[in-house]
Amino acid sequence: MAGRVDLDGNQIKPITICMIGAGGFIGSHLCEKLMSETPHKVLAVDVYNDKIKHLLEPATLAWADRIQFHRINIKNDSRLEGLIKMADLTINLAAICTPADYNTRPLDTIYSNFIDALPVVKYCSENGKRLIHFSTCEVYGKTIGAFLPKDSPLRQDPAYYVLKEDESPCIFGPIEKQRWSYACAKQLIERLIYAEGAENGLEFTIVRPFNWIGPRMDFIPGIDGPSEGVPRVLACFSNNLLRREPLKLVDGGESQRTFIYIKDAIEAILLMIENPARANGHTFNVGNPNNEVNVRQLAEMMTQVYSKVSGESSIETPTLDVSSKEFYGEGYDDSDKRIPDMTIINKQLGWNPKTALWDLLESTLTYQHRTYAEAIKQAMSKTTAN
Ligand SMILES: NC(=O)c1ccc[n+]([C@@H]2O[C@H](COP(=O)([O-])OP(=O)(O)OC[C@H]3O[C@@H](n4cnc5c(N)ncnc54)[C@H](O)[C@@H]3O)[C@@H](O)[C@H]2O)c1
Ligand SMILES: O=c1ccn([C@@H]2O[C@H](COP(=O)(O)OP(=O)(O)O[C@H]3OC[C@](O)(CO)[C@H]3O)[C@@H](O)[C@H]2O)c(=O)[nH]1
């Protein structure tokens, strides 16, 4: 760790980071990276710590004096401002960010993604502290291309669907499509942060993740999360594969996504943390434009990869079509296609993603199989016995 330098050749000084939402999927990987590869300290704030337990215990771990867990709900805890004041940088990851919640719990979604983030922005601005805020690729909503006639040759032109931080519009559906409650709340907090930068000099960076996936993402229903819960697609499909049931394709599985391996994405965040002069004032897409599939192709690939890592053959009918109303309920809508433009992050931080989709699915599904296969077998045999 000695002699680490930033992208401009300057010595990197150890800093203290207040990481809100540190106990979640991204937070757990970021904490791991900061502990194992940097000298920085982390004040880890969350309501849960299961995903970072391995970093907190035992006290003999090499980084034991560099990470502290604070069980705090940022909705209503006066300790938050003190922690932000103690830190050089605040990273805010806290959010409700599973699509199944956006149309069924729209108020919680809006409060979580806008109202609860307000004090964080305010404390950073008032105390002259730097902020890295996690937004989402969903702020782009639908592509311009989605509104072109199905047979239009313009649909082949990247200008109509590649998503650019400083050019693309944010296109959401009507208000009764409550799916967009999340994207709209994220967009407004981005605008507020930008305005704090413009009017009050807040030093900020906004991150727009494009479907980061990997180990520890969400939960497996009935094992380490509620039986009726609906996580994001990686965990939904992992759950189906582990239980040997068909993978459910919402509205034909036609929506397209680009998936990036969490470990590649975390490299980008570390560059932002350690290169403030290059990252401040910017909004960055963080994704892998080379890993595009539609959801049906994702299901097929996951089925093949899971067979390989588990040694089990796939079931006779591997997928099942379901309507979005049946799966998510009233008010669901979808982003059609999400390809990140990489110009800004490339220019500012020289960062590029590395891992191909097949490879990231192989390491992720190996983890899912090792972590959950036995627990699922036991849970399923109990259900059969009852
Ligand atoms: N994973 C992705 O691909 C992705 C994509 C787009 C945007 N994002 C954004 O990145 C951030 C992190 O996402 P994630 O995938 O790690 O989600 P996650 O749900 O795993 O992590 C969020 C964490 O925030 C915590 N949290 C929520 N409300 C809180 C509160 N009031 N007080 C304290 N802690 C609270 C949760 O307990 C959880 O541990 C979110 O802001 C999300 O919108 C993620
Ligand atoms: O069993 C399932 C689950 C989902 N789908 C479809 O897969 C697409 C992707 O779904 P998911 O990963 O759950 O979420 P989104 O990509 O739509 O949204 C996320 O993007 C970033 C973030 O902001 C945070 O992670 C979040 O909002 C989608 O088309 C589902 O309908 C399926 O077919 N079967």
From TrEMBL:
InterPro entries (alphabetical): Arna-like_SDR_e (IPR045869), Epimerase_deHydtase (IPR001509), Lipid_A_modif_metabolic_enz (IPR050177), NAD(P)-bd_dom_sf (IPR036291)
Family per record: Belongs to the NAD(P)-dependent epimerase/dehydratase family.
Residues of the NAD-dependent epimerase/dehydratase domain: 17-287
UniProt keyword annotations, A-Z: Cell wall biogenesis/degradation, Cytoplasm, Lyase, NAD
Enzyme class: lyase
An example Gene Ontology biological process: cell wall organization
Localization terms from the record: Cytoplasm
Record-level Gene Ontology MF annotations: identical protein binding; protein heterodimerization activity; UDP-D-apiose synthase activity; UDP-glucuronate decarboxylase activity
Assigned EC number: 4.1.1.35
Catalyses which reaction(s): UDP-alpha-D-glucuronate + H(+) = UDP-alpha-D-xylose + CO2; UDP-alpha-D-glucuronate + H(+) = UDP-alpha-D-apiose + CO2
Name this polypeptide is given: UDP-glucuronate decarboxylase
Gene Ontology CC: one annotated term: cytoplasm
PANTHER family: BIFUNCTIONAL POLYMYXIN RESISTANCE PROTEIN ARNA (PTHR43245), UDP-D-APIOSE_UDP-D-XYLOSE SYNTHASE 2-LIKE (PTHR43245:SF29)
Species: Anisodus acutangulus
Requisite cofactors: NAD(+)
